[in-house]
Write a structure and sequence with these properties.
Layout (H helix, E strand, L loop, with lengths): L4 H10 L22 E3 L2 E2 H14 L4 E6 L34 H7 L7 E6 L6 E7 L4 H7 L5 H8 L3 E4 L3 H8 L5 E4 L11 H8 L10 H8 L3 E2 L2 H9 L3 H24 L6 H14 L4 E2 L4 E4 L20 E6 L1 E3 L2 E2 L2 E6 L6 H19 L9 H18 L8 H8 L29 E4 L2 E3 L14 E3 L2 E5 L4 E3 L8 H9 L8
Parallel strand pairs: 3-7, 5-6, 7-8
Antiparallel strand pairs: 1-2, 3-4, 4-5, 9-12, 10-11, 11-14, 12-13, 15-18, 16-17, 18-19
Helix pairs in contact: 10-11, 10-15, 12-13
The protein binds manganese (II) ion (MN).
The site of manganese (II) ion has 5 residues, from loops.
Length: about 500
Protein backbone atom coordinates (compact mmCIF):
# COMPACT_ATOMS: atom_id res chain seq x y z
CA UNK A 1 0.00 0.00 0.00
CA UNK A 2 1.21 3.52 -0.67
CA UNK A 3 -0.33 6.87 0.10
CA UNK A 4 0.10 10.37 -1.31
CA UNK A 5 2.28 12.80 0.70
CA UNK A 6 -0.81 14.96 1.31
CA UNK A 7 -2.71 12.06 2.79
CA UNK A 8 0.23 11.17 5.04
CA UNK A 9 0.60 14.78 6.23
CA UNK A 10 -3.09 14.99 7.05
CA UNK A 11 -2.92 11.68 8.91
CA UNK A 12 0.04 12.69 11.04
CA UNK A 13 -1.87 15.62 12.51
CA UNK A 14 -5.28 14.05 13.05
CA UNK A 15 -4.78 10.41 13.89
CA UNK A 16 -5.13 9.15 17.47
CA UNK A 17 -1.93 7.38 18.53
CA UNK A 18 -1.73 5.25 20.58
CA UNK A 19 -5.19 3.92 19.74
CA UNK A 20 -7.97 4.45 22.27
CA UNK A 21 -10.07 1.41 21.44
CA UNK A 22 -9.02 -2.24 21.60
CA UNK A 23 -9.17 -2.64 17.81
CA UNK A 24 -8.74 -0.52 14.67
CA UNK A 25 -11.26 2.30 14.20
CA UNK A 26 -11.25 5.22 11.76
CA UNK A 27 -9.85 7.69 14.30
CA UNK A 28 -6.68 5.66 14.84
CA UNK A 29 -6.44 3.56 11.65
CA UNK A 30 -7.85 5.58 8.71
CA UNK A 31 -5.54 3.66 6.36
CA UNK A 32 -7.38 0.42 7.25
CA UNK A 33 -10.96 1.38 8.00
CA UNK A 34 -13.58 3.84 6.71
CA UNK A 35 -15.75 6.05 8.96
CA UNK A 36 -18.89 3.92 8.46
CA UNK A 37 -17.12 0.59 8.98
CA UNK A 38 -16.97 -1.47 12.16
CA UNK A 39 -14.31 -3.83 10.82
CA UNK A 40 -12.34 -3.24 7.60
CA UNK A 41 -14.70 -3.64 4.65
CA UNK A 42 -17.85 -4.29 6.72
CA UNK A 43 -20.14 -1.43 7.75
CA UNK A 44 -21.75 -0.89 11.13
CA UNK A 45 -25.11 -1.09 9.31
CA UNK A 46 -24.29 -4.56 7.98
CA UNK A 47 -23.52 -5.86 11.49
CA UNK A 48 -26.89 -4.48 12.60
CA UNK A 49 -28.70 -6.28 9.80
CA UNK A 50 -26.91 -9.58 10.56
CA UNK A 51 -28.27 -9.45 14.11
CA UNK A 52 -31.73 -8.41 13.00
CA UNK A 53 -31.93 -11.26 10.51
CA UNK A 54 -30.73 -13.74 13.13
CA UNK A 55 -33.29 -12.58 15.69
CA UNK A 56 -36.07 -12.69 13.07
CA UNK A 57 -35.37 -16.39 12.49
CA UNK A 58 -35.65 -17.21 16.20
CA UNK A 59 -39.02 -17.77 17.91
CA UNK A 60 -40.48 -15.22 20.33
CA UNK A 61 -39.18 -15.40 23.86
CA UNK A 62 -35.64 -16.23 22.77
CA UNK A 63 -32.32 -15.24 24.27
CA UNK A 64 -28.92 -15.67 22.62
CA UNK A 65 -25.72 -16.06 24.63
CA UNK A 66 -22.56 -15.52 22.61
CA UNK A 67 -19.20 -16.21 24.18
CA UNK A 68 -16.09 -14.68 22.65
CA UNK A 69 -12.66 -16.21 22.37
CA UNK A 70 -9.98 -16.41 25.00
CA UNK A 71 -6.33 -15.72 24.40
CA UNK A 72 -4.50 -18.96 23.68
CA UNK A 73 -0.85 -19.44 24.31
CA UNK A 74 1.36 -21.77 22.35
CA UNK A 75 3.04 -23.02 25.49
CA UNK A 76 2.57 -21.97 29.05
CA UNK A 77 1.91 -23.57 32.39
CA UNK A 78 -1.51 -21.99 32.15
CA UNK A 79 -2.94 -23.22 28.90
CA UNK A 80 -6.07 -21.36 27.86
CA UNK A 81 -8.18 -23.59 25.67
CA UNK A 82 -10.64 -21.78 23.40
CA UNK A 83 -13.72 -23.48 24.84
CA UNK A 84 -16.21 -21.69 22.68
CA UNK A 85 -14.27 -21.02 19.54
CA UNK A 86 -15.42 -22.26 16.21
CA UNK A 87 -15.40 -26.04 15.76
CA UNK A 88 -12.59 -25.38 13.35
CA UNK A 89 -10.24 -24.20 16.05
CA UNK A 90 -7.96 -27.18 15.34
CA UNK A 91 -7.26 -25.81 11.89
CA UNK A 92 -6.29 -22.40 13.19
CA UNK A 93 -2.54 -22.23 13.70
CA UNK A 94 -1.39 -21.23 17.17
CA UNK A 95 -0.76 -17.56 17.01
CA UNK A 96 0.46 -14.83 19.27
CA UNK A 97 -2.32 -12.71 17.83
CA UNK A 98 -5.76 -13.08 19.30
CA UNK A 99 -8.46 -14.29 16.91
CA UNK A 100 -12.06 -13.74 17.91
CA UNK A 101 -14.55 -16.66 17.95
CA UNK A 102 -16.08 -16.66 14.45
CA UNK A 103 -19.82 -16.40 15.20
CA UNK A 104 -19.20 -13.83 17.92
CA UNK A 105 -17.20 -11.72 15.47
CA UNK A 106 -19.76 -12.14 12.67
CA UNK A 107 -22.54 -10.80 14.88
CA UNK A 108 -20.69 -8.08 16.82
CA UNK A 109 -17.45 -7.05 15.12
CA UNK A 110 -16.03 -6.81 18.66
CA UNK A 111 -12.47 -8.08 18.53
CA UNK A 112 -11.30 -8.26 22.15
CA UNK A 113 -10.75 -11.42 24.19
CA UNK A 114 -12.75 -12.34 27.30
CA UNK A 115 -16.09 -10.98 26.18
CA UNK A 116 -19.67 -12.21 25.98
CA UNK A 117 -22.82 -10.81 24.39
CA UNK A 118 -26.46 -11.39 25.26
CA UNK A 119 -29.16 -10.76 22.66
CA UNK A 120 -32.74 -10.72 23.93
CA UNK A 121 -35.49 -10.86 21.34
CA UNK A 122 -37.78 -7.88 21.91
CA UNK A 123 -40.75 -6.20 20.28
CA UNK A 124 -38.83 -2.91 20.06
CA UNK A 125 -38.11 -1.30 16.71
CA UNK A 126 -34.63 -2.80 16.77
CA UNK A 127 -36.11 -6.23 17.40
CA UNK A 128 -33.70 -7.09 20.19
CA UNK A 129 -31.70 -5.81 23.12
CA UNK A 130 -27.93 -6.31 23.07
CA UNK A 131 -25.63 -6.35 26.10
CA UNK A 132 -21.86 -6.63 26.10
CA UNK A 133 -19.79 -8.11 28.92
CA UNK A 134 -16.13 -7.27 28.56
CA UNK A 135 -12.98 -6.54 30.53
CA UNK A 136 -13.28 -2.78 30.00
CA UNK A 137 -10.22 -0.56 30.30
CA UNK A 138 -7.70 -0.81 33.07
CA UNK A 139 -5.07 1.93 33.07
CA UNK A 140 -2.47 -0.17 34.87
CA UNK A 141 -2.85 -3.11 32.43
CA UNK A 142 -3.00 -0.85 29.40
CA UNK A 143 0.52 0.36 30.11
CA UNK A 144 1.63 -3.16 29.24
CA UNK A 145 -0.92 -4.47 26.77
CA UNK A 146 -2.35 -1.40 25.06
CA UNK A 147 -5.88 -0.09 24.98
CA UNK A 148 -9.03 -2.01 25.72
CA UNK A 149 -12.37 -0.48 24.80
CA UNK A 150 -14.09 1.28 27.71
CA UNK A 151 -17.72 0.47 28.55
CA UNK A 152 -18.79 3.91 27.30
CA UNK A 153 -16.91 3.61 24.01
CA UNK A 154 -18.27 0.09 23.51
CA UNK A 155 -21.86 1.32 23.71
CA UNK A 156 -21.30 4.22 21.34
CA UNK A 157 -19.07 2.51 18.80
CA UNK A 158 -20.52 -1.02 18.63
CA UNK A 159 -24.16 -0.02 19.34
CA UNK A 160 -24.59 -2.09 22.48
CA UNK A 161 -27.63 -1.19 24.58
CA UNK A 162 -25.75 -2.14 27.75
CA UNK A 163 -22.04 -2.50 28.42
CA UNK A 164 -21.04 -4.26 31.64
CA UNK A 165 -17.97 -5.82 33.25
CA UNK A 166 -17.42 -9.49 32.41
CA UNK A 167 -17.72 -10.57 36.03
CA UNK A 168 -21.38 -9.52 36.05
CA UNK A 169 -22.24 -12.08 33.33
CA UNK A 170 -23.13 -14.95 35.74
CA UNK A 171 -25.38 -12.68 37.77
CA UNK A 172 -27.12 -11.45 34.62
CA UNK A 173 -27.56 -14.98 33.27
CA UNK A 174 -28.99 -16.09 36.61
CA UNK A 175 -31.65 -13.42 36.48
CA UNK A 176 -32.42 -13.62 32.74
CA UNK A 177 -32.32 -17.30 31.78
CA UNK A 178 -35.36 -18.48 33.79
CA UNK A 179 -37.55 -15.98 31.92
CA UNK A 180 -36.87 -17.34 28.43
CA UNK A 181 -38.39 -20.35 26.65
CA UNK A 182 -35.52 -20.63 24.18
CA UNK A 183 -31.90 -20.26 25.15
CA UNK A 184 -29.56 -20.26 22.15
CA UNK A 185 -25.98 -20.98 23.16
CA UNK A 186 -23.12 -23.08 21.79
CA UNK A 187 -21.15 -25.11 24.23
CA UNK A 188 -18.29 -27.06 22.80
CA UNK A 189 -15.48 -28.88 24.51
CA UNK A 190 -12.70 -29.19 21.96
CA UNK A 191 -11.11 -32.12 23.80
CA UNK A 192 -14.13 -34.35 23.43
CA UNK A 193 -16.06 -32.39 20.80
CA UNK A 194 -19.09 -33.05 22.99
CA UNK A 195 -21.29 -30.43 24.49
CA UNK A 196 -21.40 -29.95 28.20
CA UNK A 197 -23.08 -27.17 30.17
CA UNK A 198 -20.30 -27.58 32.72
CA UNK A 199 -17.84 -26.08 30.27
CA UNK A 200 -19.70 -22.78 30.33
CA UNK A 201 -19.32 -22.73 34.09
CA UNK A 202 -15.61 -23.31 33.80
CA UNK A 203 -15.52 -20.29 31.56
CA UNK A 204 -17.51 -18.16 33.96
CA UNK A 205 -15.71 -19.30 37.06
CA UNK A 206 -12.12 -20.31 37.65
CA UNK A 207 -13.44 -22.65 40.33
CA UNK A 208 -13.93 -26.04 38.64
CA UNK A 209 -16.77 -27.02 40.99
CA UNK A 210 -20.03 -25.29 40.24
CA UNK A 211 -20.85 -23.07 43.14
CA UNK A 212 -24.39 -22.91 44.43
CA UNK A 213 -25.01 -19.54 42.84
CA UNK A 214 -24.62 -21.23 39.46
CA UNK A 215 -27.39 -23.74 40.10
CA UNK A 216 -29.99 -21.61 38.32
CA UNK A 217 -27.75 -21.27 35.28
CA UNK A 218 -27.00 -25.01 35.25
CA UNK A 219 -30.67 -25.84 35.50
CA UNK A 220 -31.50 -23.62 32.52
CA UNK A 221 -28.59 -24.92 30.44
CA UNK A 222 -29.43 -28.53 31.22
CA UNK A 223 -33.06 -28.12 30.26
CA UNK A 224 -34.62 -28.69 26.85
CA UNK A 225 -34.89 -24.93 26.55
CA UNK A 226 -31.23 -24.83 25.52
CA UNK A 227 -30.76 -24.95 21.75
CA UNK A 228 -27.69 -24.74 19.53
CA UNK A 229 -27.06 -21.31 17.99
CA UNK A 230 -24.47 -22.34 15.40
CA UNK A 231 -26.86 -23.80 12.76
CA UNK A 232 -28.87 -20.54 12.56
CA UNK A 233 -25.72 -18.42 12.29
CA UNK A 234 -24.20 -20.82 9.75
CA UNK A 235 -27.22 -20.31 7.50
CA UNK A 236 -26.74 -16.55 7.57
CA UNK A 237 -23.00 -16.84 7.09
CA UNK A 238 -23.35 -19.12 4.07
CA UNK A 239 -24.64 -16.27 1.88
CA UNK A 240 -22.00 -13.59 1.48
CA UNK A 241 -23.08 -9.95 1.15
CA UNK A 242 -21.51 -7.76 -1.56
CA UNK A 243 -19.18 -6.30 1.11
CA UNK A 244 -18.11 -9.78 2.22
CA UNK A 245 -17.60 -10.82 -1.39
CA UNK A 246 -15.27 -7.84 -1.87
CA UNK A 247 -13.21 -8.74 1.22
CA UNK A 248 -13.01 -12.38 0.09
CA UNK A 249 -11.93 -11.28 -3.37
CA UNK A 250 -9.16 -9.20 -1.76
CA UNK A 251 -8.06 -12.15 0.39
CA UNK A 252 -7.94 -14.43 -2.67
CA UNK A 253 -6.10 -11.74 -4.67
CA UNK A 254 -3.38 -11.59 -2.01
CA UNK A 255 -3.00 -15.39 -1.85
CA UNK A 256 -3.22 -15.82 -5.62
CA UNK A 257 -0.51 -13.25 -6.31
CA UNK A 258 1.66 -14.73 -3.54
CA UNK A 259 1.28 -18.17 -5.16
CA UNK A 260 2.28 -16.84 -8.58
CA UNK A 261 5.37 -15.18 -7.10
CA UNK A 262 6.19 -18.30 -5.09
CA UNK A 263 6.18 -20.30 -8.34
CA UNK A 264 8.78 -17.86 -9.67
CA UNK A 265 10.76 -18.03 -6.40
CA UNK A 266 10.98 -21.84 -6.25
CA UNK A 267 14.29 -23.36 -7.37
CA UNK A 268 15.57 -26.96 -7.44
CA UNK A 269 17.19 -27.87 -4.12
CA UNK A 270 15.06 -25.46 -2.11
CA UNK A 271 13.43 -26.63 1.12
CA UNK A 272 9.63 -26.85 1.31
CA UNK A 273 10.06 -24.71 4.41
CA UNK A 274 11.69 -21.90 2.42
CA UNK A 275 8.89 -22.04 -0.14
CA UNK A 276 6.23 -21.94 2.60
CA UNK A 277 7.89 -19.01 4.36
CA UNK A 278 8.11 -17.07 1.11
CA UNK A 279 4.37 -17.48 0.53
CA UNK A 280 3.57 -16.43 4.10
CA UNK A 281 5.89 -13.45 3.93
CA UNK A 282 4.25 -12.19 0.73
CA UNK A 283 0.76 -12.51 2.26
CA UNK A 284 1.75 -10.70 5.45
CA UNK A 285 3.53 -8.01 3.44
CA UNK A 286 0.35 -7.42 1.43
CA UNK A 287 -1.65 -6.80 4.62
CA UNK A 288 -2.95 -10.23 5.61
CA UNK A 289 -3.31 -10.62 9.38
CA UNK A 290 -2.51 -14.34 9.52
CA UNK A 291 -2.48 -17.55 7.49
CA UNK A 292 -5.98 -19.07 7.24
CA UNK A 293 -4.39 -22.48 8.00
CA UNK A 294 -1.06 -24.24 8.15
CA UNK A 295 0.08 -24.39 4.52
CA UNK A 296 0.75 -27.64 2.70
CA UNK A 297 3.99 -27.40 0.72
CA UNK A 298 4.53 -30.91 -0.58
CA UNK A 299 7.26 -31.79 -3.06
CA UNK A 300 7.14 -35.01 -5.09
CA UNK A 301 5.68 -38.03 -3.26
CA UNK A 302 4.85 -35.87 -0.20
CA UNK A 303 1.84 -34.65 -2.18
CA UNK A 304 0.25 -38.08 -1.64
CA UNK A 305 -0.14 -37.17 2.03
CA UNK A 306 -3.29 -35.07 1.76
CA UNK A 307 -2.69 -33.01 4.91
CA UNK A 308 1.11 -32.88 4.65
CA UNK A 309 2.31 -29.98 6.79
CA UNK A 310 5.82 -31.03 7.86
CA UNK A 311 7.12 -28.87 5.00
CA UNK A 312 10.73 -29.77 5.74
CA UNK A 313 12.11 -31.74 2.79
CA UNK A 314 13.95 -30.62 -0.33
CA UNK A 315 12.16 -30.02 -3.65
CA UNK A 316 14.07 -31.67 -6.48
CA UNK A 317 14.44 -30.71 -10.12
CA UNK A 318 12.12 -33.39 -11.55
CA UNK A 319 9.37 -33.07 -8.95
CA UNK A 320 6.13 -31.15 -8.70
CA UNK A 321 5.37 -28.93 -5.73
CA UNK A 322 1.81 -28.97 -4.41
CA UNK A 323 1.01 -25.84 -2.40
CA UNK A 324 -2.32 -25.66 -0.56
CA UNK A 325 -2.26 -22.30 1.20
CA UNK A 326 -4.25 -19.17 1.84
CA UNK A 327 -4.20 -16.05 3.91
CA UNK A 328 -6.81 -14.58 6.19
CA UNK A 329 -7.54 -10.96 5.33
CA UNK A 330 -9.85 -8.66 7.31
CA UNK A 331 -11.55 -11.67 8.87
CA UNK A 332 -12.06 -13.84 5.79
CA UNK A 333 -10.14 -16.90 4.60
CA UNK A 334 -8.82 -17.81 1.20
CA UNK A 335 -7.93 -21.37 0.22
CA UNK A 336 -6.01 -22.12 -2.98
CA UNK A 337 -4.04 -25.11 -4.27
CA UNK A 338 -1.65 -25.15 -7.16
CA UNK A 339 0.73 -27.87 -8.36
CA UNK A 340 3.70 -26.73 -10.41
CA UNK A 341 7.02 -28.13 -11.69
CA UNK A 342 10.19 -27.31 -9.74
CA UNK A 343 12.12 -27.17 -13.02
CA UNK A 344 9.61 -24.76 -14.55
CA UNK A 345 8.44 -27.31 -17.13
CA UNK A 346 6.02 -30.22 -16.63
CA UNK A 347 7.28 -33.64 -17.77
CA UNK A 348 5.01 -35.42 -20.30
CA UNK A 349 3.50 -37.65 -17.57
CA UNK A 350 3.02 -34.72 -15.19
CA UNK A 351 1.42 -32.71 -17.97
CA UNK A 352 -1.04 -35.50 -18.84
CA UNK A 353 -2.12 -36.00 -15.27
CA UNK A 354 -2.32 -32.24 -14.62
CA UNK A 355 -4.51 -31.79 -17.68
CA UNK A 356 -6.90 -34.49 -16.44
CA UNK A 357 -7.34 -32.72 -13.10
CA UNK A 358 -7.54 -29.27 -14.71
CA UNK A 359 -10.26 -30.32 -17.19
CA UNK A 360 -12.23 -31.87 -14.35
CA UNK A 361 -11.87 -28.77 -12.18
CA UNK A 362 -12.88 -26.36 -14.95
CA UNK A 363 -15.94 -28.43 -15.83
CA UNK A 364 -17.02 -28.42 -12.19
CA UNK A 365 -16.52 -24.65 -11.87
CA UNK A 366 -18.82 -24.12 -14.85
CA UNK A 367 -21.58 -25.83 -12.85
CA UNK A 368 -21.21 -23.38 -9.93
CA UNK A 369 -24.36 -21.31 -10.31
CA UNK A 370 -27.76 -21.16 -8.70
CA UNK A 371 -29.33 -21.83 -12.10
CA UNK A 372 -27.49 -25.16 -12.38
CA UNK A 373 -29.47 -26.39 -9.36
CA UNK A 374 -26.63 -28.48 -7.93
CA UNK A 375 -25.46 -29.24 -4.40
CA UNK A 376 -21.92 -29.82 -3.15
CA UNK A 377 -22.78 -33.52 -3.07
CA UNK A 378 -23.86 -33.42 -6.74
CA UNK A 379 -20.59 -31.69 -7.61
CA UNK A 380 -18.62 -34.31 -5.72
CA UNK A 381 -20.32 -37.19 -7.56
CA UNK A 382 -19.74 -35.38 -10.81
CA UNK A 383 -16.07 -34.83 -9.94
CA UNK A 384 -15.41 -38.56 -9.54
CA UNK A 385 -17.26 -39.26 -12.77
CA UNK A 386 -15.41 -36.59 -14.77
CA UNK A 387 -12.02 -37.55 -13.35
CA UNK A 388 -12.59 -41.20 -14.26
CA UNK A 389 -13.38 -40.24 -17.85
CA UNK A 390 -10.32 -37.98 -18.03
CA UNK A 391 -7.96 -40.60 -16.61
CA UNK A 392 -9.24 -43.25 -19.03
CA UNK A 393 -8.39 -40.95 -21.92
CA UNK A 394 -4.74 -40.69 -20.94
CA UNK A 395 -2.57 -42.37 -23.60
CA UNK A 396 -1.01 -45.14 -21.49
CA UNK A 397 -4.46 -45.77 -20.13
CA UNK A 398 -5.47 -46.29 -16.57
CA UNK A 399 -7.59 -49.45 -16.38
CA UNK A 400 -10.14 -47.93 -14.06
CA UNK A 401 -13.57 -47.91 -12.62
CA UNK A 402 -15.06 -44.93 -10.81
CA UNK A 403 -14.93 -46.80 -7.52
CA UNK A 404 -11.17 -47.35 -7.88
CA UNK A 405 -10.78 -43.63 -8.55
CA UNK A 406 -12.75 -42.75 -5.42
CA UNK A 407 -11.03 -45.34 -3.24
CA UNK A 408 -7.41 -45.16 -4.38
CA UNK A 409 -6.74 -42.05 -6.45
CA UNK A 410 -9.06 -39.31 -5.20
CA UNK A 411 -9.98 -40.06 -1.60
CA UNK A 412 -11.23 -36.63 -0.49
CA UNK A 413 -14.32 -34.49 -1.01
CA UNK A 414 -14.57 -31.98 -3.86
CA UNK A 415 -14.88 -28.84 -1.76
CA UNK A 416 -16.38 -26.92 1.12
CA UNK A 417 -17.89 -23.57 2.03
CA UNK A 418 -15.29 -20.95 2.89
CA UNK A 419 -15.68 -17.57 4.60
CA UNK A 420 -14.78 -16.39 8.09
CA UNK A 421 -13.73 -19.97 8.73
CA UNK A 422 -11.74 -22.05 6.30
CA UNK A 423 -14.35 -24.81 6.54
CA UNK A 424 -17.72 -23.15 7.04
CA UNK A 425 -19.76 -26.22 6.26
CA UNK A 426 -20.00 -27.93 9.67
CA UNK A 427 -23.63 -26.97 10.08
CA UNK A 428 -24.51 -26.77 6.40
CA UNK A 429 -26.07 -29.59 4.43
CA UNK A 430 -23.97 -30.90 1.54
CA UNK A 431 -27.21 -31.83 -0.20
CA UNK A 432 -28.54 -28.29 -0.12
CA UNK A 433 -28.72 -26.58 -3.48
CA UNK A 434 -25.99 -23.97 -4.03
CA UNK A 435 -27.33 -20.45 -3.98
CA UNK A 436 -26.17 -17.07 -5.25
CA UNK A 437 -23.71 -15.48 -2.81
CA UNK A 438 -22.27 -18.72 -1.46
CA UNK A 439 -18.51 -19.17 -1.68
CA UNK A 440 -17.12 -22.68 -2.01
CA UNK A 441 -13.85 -24.30 -2.98
CA UNK A 442 -13.59 -26.65 -5.95
CA UNK A 443 -10.57 -28.88 -5.39
CA UNK A 444 -10.41 -32.19 -7.23
CA UNK A 445 -7.11 -34.06 -7.12
CA UNK A 446 -5.34 -37.23 -8.12
CA UNK A 447 -2.69 -38.99 -6.05
CA UNK A 448 -1.13 -42.05 -7.67
CA UNK A 449 0.32 -44.56 -5.20
CA UNK A 450 3.25 -46.71 -6.40
CA UNK A 451 1.10 -49.79 -6.97
CA UNK A 452 1.53 -52.21 -9.90
CA UNK A 453 -2.02 -51.71 -11.20
CA UNK A 454 -1.28 -48.07 -12.01
CA UNK A 455 1.01 -47.03 -14.91
CA UNK A 456 4.56 -46.68 -13.62
CA UNK A 457 5.24 -43.22 -15.06
CA UNK A 458 2.51 -41.77 -12.86
CA UNK A 459 3.67 -43.35 -9.61
CA UNK A 460 4.09 -40.92 -6.70
CA UNK A 461 2.61 -37.95 -8.55
CA UNK A 462 0.05 -35.98 -6.54
CA UNK A 463 -1.88 -33.12 -8.12
CA UNK A 464 -4.64 -30.92 -6.72
CA UNK A 465 -6.06 -27.72 -8.20
CA UNK A 466 -8.25 -25.60 -5.94
CA UNK A 467 -10.04 -22.30 -6.46
CA UNK A 468 -12.42 -20.20 -4.38
CA UNK A 469 -15.68 -19.84 -6.30
CA UNK A 470 -18.44 -17.30 -5.76
CA UNK A 471 -21.75 -18.80 -6.84
CA UNK A 472 -23.65 -16.43 -9.14
CA UNK A 473 -27.25 -16.66 -10.30
CA UNK A 474 -26.25 -17.89 -13.75
CA UNK A 475 -22.48 -18.39 -13.55
CA UNK A 476 -19.45 -18.59 -11.29
CA UNK A 477 -16.88 -15.96 -10.34
CA UNK A 478 -13.41 -17.34 -9.68
CA UNK A 479 -12.11 -15.29 -6.73
CA UNK A 480 -8.63 -16.87 -6.82
CA UNK A 481 -8.04 -15.94 -10.44
CA UNK A 482 -4.61 -14.36 -9.68
CA UNK A 483 -3.05 -17.79 -9.20
CA UNK A 484 -1.87 -19.18 -12.58
CA UNK A 485 -3.63 -22.42 -13.50
CA UNK A 486 -3.37 -23.12 -17.24
CA UNK A 487 -0.18 -25.06 -18.09
CA UNK A 488 1.23 -22.19 -20.17
CA UNK A 489 0.54 -19.71 -17.36
CA UNK A 490 2.03 -21.91 -14.62
CA UNK A 491 5.18 -22.59 -16.68
CA UNK A 492 5.32 -18.92 -17.61
CA UNK A 493 5.14 -17.90 -13.94
CA UNK A 494 7.82 -20.43 -12.97
CA UNK A 495 10.16 -19.35 -15.77
CA UNK A 496 9.59 -15.64 -15.35
CA UNK A 497 8.04 -15.27 -18.81
CA UNK A 498 4.96 -13.63 -17.30
CA UNK A 499 7.18 -10.79 -16.12
CA UNK A 500 6.60 -11.78 -12.50
CA UNK A 501 9.18 -10.97 -9.89
CA UNK A 502 9.66 -13.50 -7.08
CA UNK A 503 9.17 -10.73 -4.48
MN1 LIG B 1 -9.85 -26.37 0.71
Amino acid sequence: MSFSPNFIRRLSTTVTKPAKLGQPVFASHPHLIKPDELTPGISTREYESRRQRLMETLPDNSIVVLIGGKVKYMSNQILYVPLFNSPNWLLTPPSYKFRQASDFWYLTGFDEPDAAVILEKASSQRGYKMSLFSSGSNQEKEKWDGARTTFTDAKAHFKFDESLPFHSLPRTLRSLLPAYDNIYVDILRPSSRRSSPRSILKYLSPDPEPRSEYDTIMEALNSSRRKPLAPAVAKLRSIKSPAEQAVMRAAADISGTALAKTMRFTQPGMSEHTIASHFEYLCAFAGSQRPAYVPVVASGPNALVIHYTSNNQIAHQTELVLIDAGCEFNGYASDITRTYPVSGTYSPAQRELYTAVLNTQKNLINMCSEAAGVSLMDLHRKSAELLTVELKQISVGFQLTQSVVERELYPHFVGHHVGIDLHESNHLDRNEQLREGMVITIEPGVYVPPLPHFPKEFHNIGIRIEDDILIGSTGPTILSVNAPKEIADVEGACQGILGLEPF
